[in-house]
Design brief:
With 502 residues, the protein is mostly beta strands. It is 7% helix and 41% strand. The chain has a 20-stranded mixed beta sheet that branches.
Length: 502
């Protein structure tokens, strides 16, 4: 028996050696430079001296706890009413991801500037309604001074950050709520709002790969600041790219994409997507449309508005602004209300798909593109006025209505209905004996057929060998079809399909 146990242990030892090499009880295995972390108990700032009564200064305990877990990668719990009187700017960059769990309201005496590899999650009982009035937990970050700007700063470089389930601001903030000038940030279930009219809920300057999900951005009720400001910092060449807003809500003001600083024309900033975006309660000043784009200092490209709902009938899904640089490749997909477009900047490559586009344009923008709706109506834009090649149309023109069963469509500059397909079917021709060289014939009315047009003829029943059908336009609107015999015989009677080629 002892021999059997010894043999079993000898076989097991090679598999256990990596564990012994790192020390029994560790939760970490290492292969080259890649670390794989197992479940780790979260660190508690109160164990390091945080009192968290909303009055005492918990800065030292909070910062020391963050730094200690950052050395190994860990989870960090901040209880309700912890007070970060003097936040570092920024926190020390951890070696591994640090997940900070907010268990309630956290007070801060200044800007909370996150370090890379930091992810804040609010998992406390709700402190007020979250963006969509749901039941997800919503912690809160509150500043002791309403002038703190921004309240939360994600303008880090090198590695991503994230924030989730958090309400930002104290309702009276006058500066920026969330600054996310970074790369690959994940912002999820965030509410940023204030009743101050100088407040800007979100500012993103440059960066790429940022994702905003399930969130609310609301300035003051009569503010003229955009709810979401996406800005290229042309002074240092940091242009916004690949930014996505999904299932977001803005109140009073819509979103704006513009540029700051001087600009030397070069690569366009590109890639801005709004999907399932609700904009309501516009105060009809400032940024009154769901998205306004300004190309004054930089060109813009690749914009998509997918299922945008503009609740106020006088406002539009997209405003091209009044800039002077290139604006190209804009796609509007199934707007739900506010399907209109406006602005004076030309768009090159506009595509729209909608179930109804009764009035596609407001204003006098010369758009270069096509719009199709679900029922088949097609609108052409930026086409020249008939007879005047130097004066392009400045509003939309309907290219054609939905084609009817007879394959016709109405054009705005044509008199009457123009047929796309000049065709018809004759009565029965043949059935009687023909001598060599003789022909049987019939006629059919084909509207808009003109003499000299080419006619194609084909039988519905084969007439037999040696009989040749052909046709021609014998008079305006009349096509004559002949069936001629190369040798004496009786052709099988048949109707003939006629197509006139324009």
């Amino acid at each position: 028996m002892k021999k059997t146990i010894f043999i079993f242990f000898a076989l097991l030892l090679p598999m256990l050696s990596p564990v012994f090499a790192q020390g029994l009880g560790t939760d970490e295995t290492q292969t080259n430079d890649n670390h794989f972390k197992g479940p780790i108990p979260e660190a508690d700032a109160t164990a390091n001296g945080a009192i968290c009564n909303g009055v005492a200064d918990d800065t030292t305990a909070l910062v020391n706890t963050f730094n200690s877990v950052g050395a190994t990668g860990n989870e960090f719990r901040i209880d309700d009413n912890c007070n970060l009187v003097t936040p570092p700017s920024p926190f020390t960059t951890p070696h591994y991801w640090v997940t900070v769990h907010l268990r309630g309201r956290m007070l801060t005496g200044g800007t909370l500037k996150l370090a890379p590899l930091t992810y804040i999650i609010g998992d406390a009982p709700q402190h007020g309604p979250n963006p969509f009035f749901g039941l997800m937990p919503m912690a809160q970050i509150v500043t002791s001074s309403s002038s703190t700007s921004p309240v939360v700063d994600l303008s880090v470089s090198g590695n991503p950050v994230g924030i989730r389930n958090v309400s930002i601001g104290n309702g009276a903030n006058t500066g920026i709520g969330l600054n996310s000038s970074t790369v690959n940030a994940i912002i999820d279930n965030i509410s940023v709002q204030s009743y101050s009219n100088s407040f800007q809920p979100l500012v993103q300057r440059g960066g790429f790969g940022n994702r905003y999900n399930n969130s609310e951005f609301a300035p003051g009720e009569v503010s003229t600041n955009p709810a979401m400001l996406i800005q290229d910092n042309a002074a240092n060449g940091d242009f916004s790219r690949d930014t996505v807003f999904k299932n977001v809500f803005s109140n009073y003001q819509g979103a704006r994409w513009n540029s700051s600083g001087p600009y030397a024309y070069g690569s366009c900033s590109d890639g801005l997507t709004f999907e399932d975006y609700l904009f309501e309660n516009s105060n009809n000043t400032g940024n009154r449309d769901a998205l306004t784009v300004d190309t004054t200092n930089n060109c813009k490209a690749d914009i998509a508005m997918i299922r945008t709902y503009v609740a106020d009938a006088t406002n539009c899904t997209f405003n091209s602004g009044s800039g002077s640089n290139l604006l190209s490749t804009v796609e509007i997909i199934e707007p739900i209300g506010g399907g209109c477009l406006k602005g004076t900047t030309k768009i090159y490559g506009l595509f729209a798909h909608t179930s109804s586009f009764v009035t596609p344009f407001v204003g006098t923008t010369p758009w270069a593109g096509l719009i199709e709706d679900r029922v088949g109506n097609t609108w052409a834009t930026n086409i020249n006025v008939v007879g005047n090649s130097t004066s392009p149309a400045t509003t939309s023109t309907q290219l054609a209505t939905n084609a009817t069963a007879s394959h016709t469509a109405t054009f705005p500059d044509a008199s009457g209905t123009v047929a796309f397909d000049l065709s018809g079917t004759t009565g029965r021709i043949g059935g009687s004996a023909l001598m060599t060289g003789n022909c049987a014939s019939g006629t059919i009315s084909v509207a808009n057929a003109m003499t000299g047009m080419t006619v194609s003829v084909s039988p519905n029943t084969y007439p037999g060998d040696g009989f040749i059908p052909w046709g021609y336009v014998s008079a305006k609107g009349i096509v004559t079809v002949k069936l001629c015999a190369q040798a004496s015989g009786t052709p099988t009677a048949s109707t003939y399909n006629v197509r006139v080629l324009q």
